[in-house]
């Protein structure tokens, strides 16, 4: 097993190039990226496939919502098993079981099964391991004595998240429309299994399992509840911004370009995340987290300002680009806090809880943004992500005040 390098950040040169001099890092990162891309494909592929076969977006939405709810329950449980028994031993069979669920969904759609069967099949895919959390856990293990290098690694992982969620839906749409409706799910499944096998084959970089270690549940660890609540509010930012932007573009007769416009937000976040990783963090991460949330709250006002003052999609696009630049630094710092506050031996579970909070927030944000668009206006809908960002800031600030005040 390679030993952590406490002097990695002190070496000259590009910090990302130094990062991948860690033995085994390139190999598990290749598998990680292959397995991560389909995560942004599956829900879009399912919606296109089900809506095309049944002519009902309501059914497609119900099926994907069921999968999200199942993931919120099964995700932390799978991560707990991974912490106890090791990544390779649990992640591969969990992935195989999830792919059986995806195959069952294809068969249910093809043979015109009832809606409840589609929901049950898609719920079985909830055992898909959180590959981003698995990769971050490896970096945390390898770089546990090098906080600067770990900061760069977390920044890289966040940029990879943004890139895959930017490319995944585009690839899913191309496959489902240019080949056949089931192509997105089939090819996504092949990529997921291939990437997971490559990733878990790198045993030298795998964190040791905790076995029967008795530690507090991550959500009960000091400082974790407010952090998870803050991530829930941050998820509302992401979910509501997507719905409101699509509605705004549709209201102005440009629904076809809503995807590329939304991609600008992810592009801004990806670029900012990579830049953030080259900087040496100063001060405690709690203070940096507050500053990042304050910046995100400020920049989230730009889309509302652009929509209200100009009513133009051309003005909204650069506003979304700028707004996205605060999200990656916020998420990088939040994940650093998750790594520090999670009890030893339960890091995969802690990371999965963070992702679950984000997904739950995205679901709430989609619903809230949709309500605001329908009952108020698309322009007014941009107040939802701004309000959610302010809420996340208030939660973090309130926790810091409570800690400082006896």
From TrEMBL:
Which InterPro entries does UniProt cross-reference here?
MFS, MFS_trans_sf
**UniProt keyword annotation of Membrane present:** yes
Q: Which UniProt keywords apply?
A: Membrane, Transmembrane, Transmembrane helix
Q: Where are the transmembrane segments?
A: 33-51, 57-78, 90-109, 115-134, 186-205, 226-249, 255-277, 289-307, 313-338, 350-372, 384-403
SUPFAM superfamilies noted in UniProt? MFS general substrate transporter
Q: What is this protein called?
A: MFS transporter
